Structures are given as structure tokens and as C-alpha cells.
Fold this protein.
Amino acid sequence: MAETNLGRARMVVDDDEINLGALFGVLFGRKFLILALTTLGMFLSAFGTLSSRNIYSADALVQLEEKTSSIPGLEAMDVFAEAPRTAAEIEIITSRLVIGSVVDTLDLSLVAEPLAPPVLRRLPELLPPVLSRALEEVVPFSGGFNWGDAAISASRLEVPSEMLNEELFVRKLTPTNFEVSLPDGRTLEGTLGMILRDETSGLVLKVDQLSGRIGRMFVLKRLRRMDAINAVKNGLTVSERGRNTSILSIVYQDVSPERAQRILREVTSAYLGQNISRNSADIEQSLLFVEEQLPQAKVRADEAKEALNEYLRSQNAVDLERESEALLTRLTELEGELSQVLLEEERVSRRYLPDHPIYQDLLLNQGQLEQQIAELEEGIEALPETQKQVFNLRQSVEISQEIYRQFLNRSQELGVAKASSIGNVRVVDEAVASSIPVAPRTSRVLALGTLLGFMIGCASALALFFFRKTFDTLSDLEPLGLSLYGVIGQISGLPTQRPKRGDAITRLSQTDGNEAPKEAFKSIRTSLHFSLADKSPKALALTSAQPGDGKSFVSHNIAEAVGASGQRTVLIDTDMRRGYLHRTFGVSHTLPGLSEYLAGDIELEQAFQHVGENLVLIPRGKVPPNPSELLMSHRFAELVKLLDELFDVSVYDTPPVLAVTDPLIVFRHVPIRLALARHGKTELGAIGAVKSICDKEDLPLDGLIVNGFDAKRAKGYGGYGYGGYGYGGYGYTGAYSYGSNKDER
């Protein structure tokens, strides 16, 4: 079949160019298949969209601002500013920290909704209420489903852990009462607005509202918290608007626009809350450190002041000179600055590693202050001993008091900063839901479904064309290299199958009209006339690949056409197993025929049956046990010679060559050997196998006759054109059952 498919491919692709006419012809020939698959694709897409729930979308915009130092007094220092990390913020928004807070706040683990139809669930939403009610009345067992009028509101549902994710079915009994079906098969009755408790299962339920007709069904379910979080995350989409804009677009999709908007607003609120908490964490840690150090600083200041007073009383010391006072003031200022730097280092060390530029700047500033302090202390060493001691004590007092004042001021500043912390996230657009569903997109789905169905239809049509085993156009036969003796079209008024026993048989010559087939047999007669002109004996044999190709029909019509031209013609039914030419001409099956003559039971004239003008039939006779042996006998060879002497043309109807070997025996005694192929039924591989068998036996076929040719079908597969084809051989595997039919009448 490889060469067959290659030949068909060459019909639509010739010289590296696509033959659009042939391709269109192939598609047009399967137009009903393409139309059916296109319609099916459109129907399935419409069915899918009507069976899907509407999805609505809510969206919001948030801006990520640069984060500055949360420590008061350092906001203007650019080194402490941080660019927002968009990817990290997206992960935070979709984290369980934020989504879990939303689930808990809105109680999203509680699912309460009307029971939707299993299919076409969007149909009630599209139909007017009057049509919905009418359809509900027509469709059986549909009273419990939501037909656009049902709604439920439940404020409380508590179930044990083993009933999590289990569905509870609620049925409306009266305007105020309902019935709950539990997973264990029990039912409970409750009242709207009242708490329903079941001690056996641990169920606690409060249904506030049930809308819809009596008998409507509703579904209640308490999800596991993690399942509820995942459900919200699946509907949430966060992306950056543009590139490096720090503007985040947050979109949430849900079956209800109000629910989508409510959930998204809670998501943005929870994200803002955690952002503020995260930004105030530094302030809280710094405030905790300052509050821990403040009492200790006060104690150290008091102790330093008491030590100075005690020394002055014991030494009767006087106050410091002006020069010493200047040293003390400068040293106190430096110690205060150093204390402030050390305090800032404590905060920075919690956020950065020592090799960070911000940390390095602080260390550099600390080193410079320590160097200046060391230089001042060297100057102090040159003072007198008593003055030096007073200076040191006075310095200790000033430094301790300055440190205490710094801690006290810092404590107050951090308290104010904590109270006024606002975070670095700003909501640009509040969450708003659209009333127009974003999915399913009906028009797009219908267009894609229709297009997909059309493409599948075209692909199926081409596949059936390229991989079909039977021949569809006359061009398919050209690789066989056989002469086409004739093409017989479809004939109206005659059976297309082998007639059953007892059925009356009408010959073509007995029908009115059918001029085209009659002319086809006359054309075959003309071709045979020239082919037999120089042949001896003037005989032809006709075979086919399989039963049912119309071999006997063609044989007797050729014989009738030849006889009608005035030539004495004899038609021999050599199919002694299942031949039925005697029925075609109304000859009794009890009369002797070929089998009796070959067996030597009768003379030749006794087998003759005059069935028409210049036409004699030799029927098969009784079914013998050894038809092949009879044909191989010398009497059959003598019969061929005798008939050639008595008649102008002899026509031998033989069995199918792929079923039995009888045709090959007959072929050895006749000069013209023809094969028959039925359009749309005979496989190309079978025809190729017949040709190969005959060539192997050195009995080449002289030509081919096509029977039952459907011009419309052939036109649909590329017309009648012939192209350049190569022939390499046909593979065929198969066998035909061709047992004797002794009961044939």
C-alpha cells in the first residue's frame, strides 16, 4: 500500500507544487463528513460553555514605595533607603500568611451554594424566568436543581474533623423549614435562623436564608483550612504592571462578582496590615532595647554625680579652669556622638552583614570619633593630679547624663514613630469586580470549536483519501500498468450484490434506459474485436480478485454485446463451484453443463443452451467434487479448440483468482486475459496481487475493466485525470472463502 498512498500523494502534490484543485476535490468529496465534524465541534463547544459556570474577575492596584529607615532622625539619609523587591512582595501576597488571614476573616472554608444541574448549568442563567420554569416542568427529576431562583445564606457550620470536605445536602421543605442529609444517611430537620445541633455527629448548623421554590436542593461543606487557602490561591493572580514600575496588579476570579470583590478587598487589606506590622518591627525592637537601657543609664548618671560631689568635699577642690571646661565640653560632645553611633550600630547589625556599605560607613564614623576622643584624653593627662581627677569625675557625670538624655529622647521618638508607622505599600485602585464574566468566552469558544471541528474533518477526509485501501479514481489504477478496456458506471434497477437463491434476475438488456452502461459494453466489445483480430483461439477469460465484484454480470453482458453484433458467441461458466450464469438466463440447474462434459458424461451439443441471438451458454452443470482437476484435463483443452471452430468468440467466466487456482488453468488456453475491479470495493492491493500472481505464472493480464464506477465519488477525489506515477509493487495479505454451493439454484 506504500506505493498506493505515494501515488495519491503525487496527485495533490505535483512537481513540488500543491494541486489545489485536486486537494479541494478530495475535501469536497467528503463534504458531508467535514460538515458533520464541524457541526459536532460547534455542538461540543456550545455544550462545554453551557456546562461551565460563569467566572467573574475583580482587580486592584497597589504601589510599592521605597522603604526608608524607620529610626527617627535618619529618614533623610539616602543610604538607608531600600528599593521595593517586587518578586518578594508577590510571594508575600500569595503566601499562607496573607491568604490564611483572608480565609479566617471571611470564613471562606464554609461553602454554601444551590445545587446546580450536572450539565448545561449556565442554561438557566441565559433563559428568561418563564422559559426556565417551563423547561423545569419538562425535564424529569429537575425540581431540586437551581433554575436561577435559588440562593442560600449560612452563618455557622461546625463539623468534626472526619466530616471536613464532606457535602451536606439541604432541601427546602417549607418557607421556614429545611432538611439536612448527612453523609451517614440520616436526615435532620431545622428552622431558618435557629441553630441545629446533632449530638451524634457533632454537627452545628445555622441557616439564615433559603431562596427558591419548595424542594430546591443546596450544598453545604466545611473545607479543610489548607484546602480553602489553596482554593483562594488558585483564583488569585499577582503580576507587576509594566517593567520595574513597582505597581502590582492583583486579580481574583470567582463564580460570583460580589464574592470576588469582597475576597480581593480583604486580600489587599491583609497585605497592607502585615506590611505595616513588618515595617514597625524595627521600631519595636529598637524601643525595647532603649527601654531596657534607660533605667541603667539613669543609675550610672546618679552614681557619677555622687562620686564627683564626694571627691570635691574630701579635697576641698575648686571648680575647673576655663581651659579644662572647654576640654570637658568637647569630650562630652564626642562621647555623646559615639553613643549615638553605637546605638545605631545595634539596629543596623540586625539587618546587614559587616561588609555591607551602610555598616561600613557606621564603623568608619565610629573609628573617627574614637580617635578624636583619644587625642583629647592625651591633653587631659597633662593637667595637675587633683584637677585631673576632678576633670575625670566631672567628665563621667556629663557623659552619663548625656547618655541618659539620649535614651530618654530616643524612647519618646520611637514611641511616636511606632504610633505613626504606615508601611511602604499604597493602594492605588480599590478592588472592583466587573459584572461581565471573563470566562467562558462563548463566542471565542464556539469559533475555536467550530474551527477545530472543521480542521479535524479536513484531516479525516485527507486521511481517508491517502490511506484508503480501495481505489477511488481511475488515476489510482495507472500504477498497475494495465490497459483499461472499459469503465462501467452504476446501473439503476439492478442489484449490486450477488442475487440470493430464488431471486429473479434481470439482465441489463432487459431494462429500459441505462444507455451509458450499454454503450460501455459496446465499447468493450470494440476493444476486444481489435485485440482478438490476430489471436487464436478467439477467446477471452474474465476473473476478479474477490467475490462480489460483478464478474459474472460483466461476462454475460460482454457476451450479449458481442452476439448482438452478429458474431456467434459462446459463454462458458467455468466457475463450477458457485457459478450462477444459468440463473441469469433462466436455465434450470438440472440441465447438464460443463462439469458433465469434462467428466465425459455427455456430448458437447448436449451442454449448449441457446439463450439469445447468436449467443449460446454452457452452464456450470452439477457441482463436481474436483473442479480444478476437470479443468486440467485434456478434454478442457480440446473444448477450447472445438469452441473456437464452432463460434466466432468464446467468453470464459472464471472464479476469483485470489480464492482458487481455476482461473490460471483457464488462462493457459486463452489469449486475452482480463481482470475486473469494482469501484469503491476492490482493494488496490488485491488488484496488484492478481497481477503479480498472473505474472509469476507467465500469464500476464491484458487489461482491466472497472465495474460500478461512481463518477461523483471519483470527482470528489480528484477527477479523472492521469498523472505521472511509478509502480513498484503492491502488498496484499488476505484470503477469500470460496467453497462450493451445491444448493445453488
Observations:
- The mean pLDDT is 82.
- The first helix runs from residue 2 to 12.
- The first strand starts at residue 13 and ends at 14.
